[in-house]
């Protein structure tokens, strides 16, 4: 089987077990998601660890991390994190990935999270793309002046 065939198969398994975000109440979401296993994410993590076709697979993996979080909490929701126990571990994994890896498509990921609640992730991607002024603007727009100052002091 090719990687694409494996990913397609794993997606079918996930779809059988994935909670339908549209049909469940917020109060039921945590219970439904706690048993979900991200087969495609784990497979892509493995593929990335062995270094094959790294650019493509690192981008696909980051996209999956993001898509999963947007299924748990709508991209448009801007008033904080609704289910921290579900979002925060995934979010930390994504941010570590974005900081540690180099071979993903930053522009496509930035486009994917634009106009969302993922401001910290936006800053990481903007820094990777050397768009420092835009990163500082996010700090300032969110009232994080100390972080903006610290960011400026760390940059040449």
Shape field? flat
Protein structure class: mainly alpha
Work out the radius of gyration.
17 Å
Kindly state the percentage of residues in helix: 55-70%
Annotation field: number of helices: 9
Summarize the structure.
Helices cover 70% and strands 0% of the residues. It starts with a helix and ends with a helix.
Describe this structure as you would to a colleague.
This protein is an all-alpha fold and 156 residues long. It has one domain. 70% of the residues lie in helices and 0% in strands. The chain has helices at residues 3-17, 26-33, 39-50, 54-72, 84-100, 106-113, 119-128, 132-141, 145-154. Helix 3 (39-50) runs antiparallel to helix 4 (54-72) and helix 4 runs antiparallel to helix 5 (84-100).
